[in-house]
Amino acid sequence: MLKYLSKRLFFAIPTLLIISFALFAILDLAPNDPTSNLPITIPPEVRAEIKTSLGLDKPFHIRYFKWMEQFFINEPLNLIEEITGLEIGDSESRLRVRSWSSHSPVVDSIVERLPQTLWVVGLSYVFGILIALPIGVVSAYKQYSWFDQIGTFVSMVGFSIPTFFTGLVLIVVFSVWLSWLPSTYDTTHDITDLSSLWYQIKQMTMPVLVLAFYNAAQLSRFMRASVLENLNLDYVRTARAKGLRDRAILLKHVLRNSMLPVVTMIALGVPTIFTGAIITEQIFRVNGIGQLLITGINSADIPLVQSLSFLFAVLIVAFNLIADIVYGILDPRIKYE
Amino acid sequence: MRRIVATLLLALPILLLGSCSRETTPEAPDEVEGNENVAVSTLDVDTHLKILYWQGPTTLNPYLSSGTKDIEAASIVLEPLAHHDVDANMVPILATEIPTKENGGLAEDRTSITWHLRQDIVWSDNTPLTATDVVFTWEYCTAEGGGCTAIDSFRYVERVVAIDDHTVRIEFVKPAPYPYGPFVGSVSPILQREQFKDCLGARAKECTDQNFYPIGTGPFRALEFKANDTVQYIANTLYRDEGKPFFQTVVIKGGGNATSAARTVLQTGEFDYAWNLQVEPEILESMRGAGKGEILTGFGSQVERIMVNQTNPDPKLNEEQRSVYMDGKNAHPFLSDINVRRALTLAIDRQILVDVLYGVSGRPTCNVIPLPEKYVSTNNDDCLTQDIEEANRILDEAGWVLGSDGVRAKDGIRLSLVYQTSTNSVRQSTQSLIKDWWQQIGVETELQNFDGGVFFSTDAANPFTLTRFYADVQMYTNSFEGNDPSNYVESWKCGNVPGPHNSWVGSNISRGCSEEVDALLDALSETFDATERVEIIKQLNDKVVQNVWEIPLIHRARVSARANSLKGFELNGWDSEIWSIADWYRE
């Protein structure tokens, strides 16, 4: 097991290096420009100077190695310093990965935005799972019943209607017509007492609802299919023949077996919590990681986009590994040697 | 064992989630002195102002800005010597008066200008504003490697000297045609020397605390800055005007798009003010129906125009030739014919464009300099009425014969255009309306659009930019900084044509070039009499319009929305929309 783990970790290094290079190359080839959002009255000569000051006049490989140094050496060192309070070397003059638009360290903006993304996207993921699993199980157990039909219909709707539409409908109903919920998420809101907690719940309701609906729709279909597959297997018939009650068969045997692929799915989906929800964050102005990425792309903020996408890549590689290991542990038939 | 590992692994994401969400109670920002932490929801609603900039501010240092949003967000903290009011007049802010020849502030030969600072101004850290701050600001912006966005304001500045504590003299390398560039308007406000003295040149970008929390003289100071998300301000208790500002706290929130921004003011009433709302007129109108707010417009110098390429953009030409001026030897096959260009502008119905696409946010114009009033020419107003018949007559007379395919041709050259612009629903609708009118005069049009980030890019290797101009005509909005078009008209010089020789850096985008225009520009640089200058600038406007290098379409306004309760201002089209925030109040 340990051998397998170390082997996988070892192979992750070249994978991630290749990903970082590919990202950098694609971003470099993209035809946009960090000065294109400046007022049109700023003459082209000034724009050229601004780009030089960002280091854009340097050749590709130098910029790439500079980013690598900043990201793999300087930033971790800085993180260690922050946590331990120690000073390692000359931390004053150590260059950090800085955004081209705010000129502040990229890692700081990510840390600043994680809370709202985890609150909204993370909660919606949890709710999505909590809704999807029972629906999936019941739908499969009572296949073609009215519950299953409605469940299928609702999840198809959730599956096929994009979040920007459901989001807008919710805003029109709950913010414009009824004025119950705010359409804008206040990221500076502090929870200090019951009333501020209530406000936090109110401002999270719509974005969480939209995303949970979307997540649940996907997952419940998956759960249903997995339970259905197990219900027709021999061990179920054997259990029935032994006289076990349906309830026990379903909850003790079938559920456990059909959870195997679903748990893998859930683990693989965890990185999406951190990557944020680009569209939903925009609609409700949650301004989390997803919104950070999209504004970075729009303003050609290469260091920001590069670092963010690379962190996503790390998360995806890591959770793939975790999913594999979890699978092996849940299913004793699989052995990693 | 297996079981324990399984539980641990399963618990990992949950633990991660838990540990991170505990961070959601943000700590008080320790960068800010005072450490007041204001919970927005518990504020006094009356004196709390909520502003929505759907492109959120990314820095409060306008010299390092990446867009108008930053300059405006900084304008309530940092102040220049003078601002522009809604009528494009200069108003002294940190100065006692606007220097002129009459009051002796402006040298007779225009080689220097002397500003007197007000004596009663203190920074928000209770130190006095002095002339050294002004001198320092010039050093800051012109320092090597700083990437200062306002450097154009200091173009002809030789040096800035502090005469005494409250007097500065700006000396120019040559007689300045327009001496009010430096330190006027929200693009070049005064920075505090004490705060920024270690942030010169390449170090400018590393001064995050300074750039996010500049010390200013304005009515507010930043309390918490979250780049691209939220800026919280609190009233500057040391602000010079007694009893101002009315509002005690201001928040500028970013995110979303123009339509949803309009909704938060006009329909849900969550915000008091929303900026930059280029939204289809009928959508805005229906939102206004909710009765919660008002739509504001402010006209400045923005003109949506079509640039007409005077060089040959044929894709078969190589990079050294395509859309390159080549001393006039590479003329456009048919757009070099003035009759074709005249017909193109005559065929356009500007009023319909306004009615359908712009509403209150635009009006038809036949000039590339639409305001201030004194510069506006009346010689081109006949373009306001569409005349397809006349356009057809001109083309017939010039020998462009209508073919069986409905497209005119002469000597085997077909009137077939590529028309490019940036991606934006209003622009695409404009394109298709114009395409239809041009079809009626026998001109075939192929439409193209590129993402704004690509089209407005200045990347020399990018072939889709407006400076490369690999199309026959292209459309975008141009304007000039401040209230004086002196620098702007310079763009029509022959020498400013972009091309490979200057890495495509040049502002004469249509590549129109004539000795007459160059002579007028030379005359302008030697004319210091105000009325004569106005005359020359008007003539330049007429030349460009009558040569049809540019086809002015719409004089565009800034559009913003305010809640009904918010009073005390008009929308400013010449400077930051919110610089006068000290006068805003709620009723």
The helix-and-strand class of chain A reads: mainly alpha
Nearest-integer average pLDDT of chain B: 89
On the 0 to 100 scale, the average pLDDT of chain A is: 88
Stretches of chain B where pLDDT is under 50 for at least 5 consecutive residues are 1-42
Helix content of chain B: 10-25%
- Rounded Rg of chain B: 27 Å
Subunit arrangement of the protein: heterodimer
Radius of gyration of chain A: 24 Å
Biggest interface reads: A-B, 81 and 92 residues
Q: Based on the coordinates given, report the CATH architecture of the largest domain in chain A.
A: Orthogonal Bundle
Structure, described:
The complex is a heterodimer of chains A (337) and B (587). With 337 residues, chain A is mostly helical. In chain A, 74% of the residues lie in helices and 0% in strands. Chain A has two domains: 11-84, no CATH class; 107-330, MetI-like fold (Orthogonal Bundle), CATH 1.10.3720.10. Chain A is built from twelve helices and no strands. The N and C termini of chain A lie close together (6 Å). Chain B has 587 residues and is α+β, with helices and mostly antiparallel strands. Chain B has three domains: 1-61 and 218-292 and 564-587, Periplasmic binding protein-like II (D-Maltodextrin-Binding Protein, domain 2); 78-216, Dipeptide-binding Protein, Domain 1 (Dipeptide-binding Protein, domain 1, Alpha-Beta Complex); 299-558, Dipeptide-binding Protein, domain 3, CATH 3.10.105.10. Chain B has helices spanning 2-21, 68-74, 131-142, 193-196, 208-212, 258-266, 281-288, 338-346, 350-358, 388-397, 425-440, 452-455, 486-489, 515-525, 530-546, and strands at residues 48-52, 82-84, 90-92, 112-116, 157-164, 167-172, 220-226, 230-235, 249-253, 273-274, 293-308, 362-364, 401-402, 408-410, 413-414, 416-422, 444-450, 473-478, 550-563, 566-567, 585-586. In chain B, strands 1, 7, 8, 9, 10, 11, 12, 16, 17, 18 and 19 form an eleven-stranded mixed β-sheet that branches. A three-stranded antiparallel β-sheet of chain B has the order 4-6-5, with helices on one face. In chain B, a hairpin with a 3-residue loop joins strand 7 and strand 8. The longest helix of chain B has 20 residues, at 2-21. Chain B is globular. Chain B starts with a helix and ends with a strand. Chains A and B meet through helix 2, helix 4, helix 6, helix 9 and helix 10 of A and helix 1, helix 5, helix 6, helix 12 and strand 18 of B.
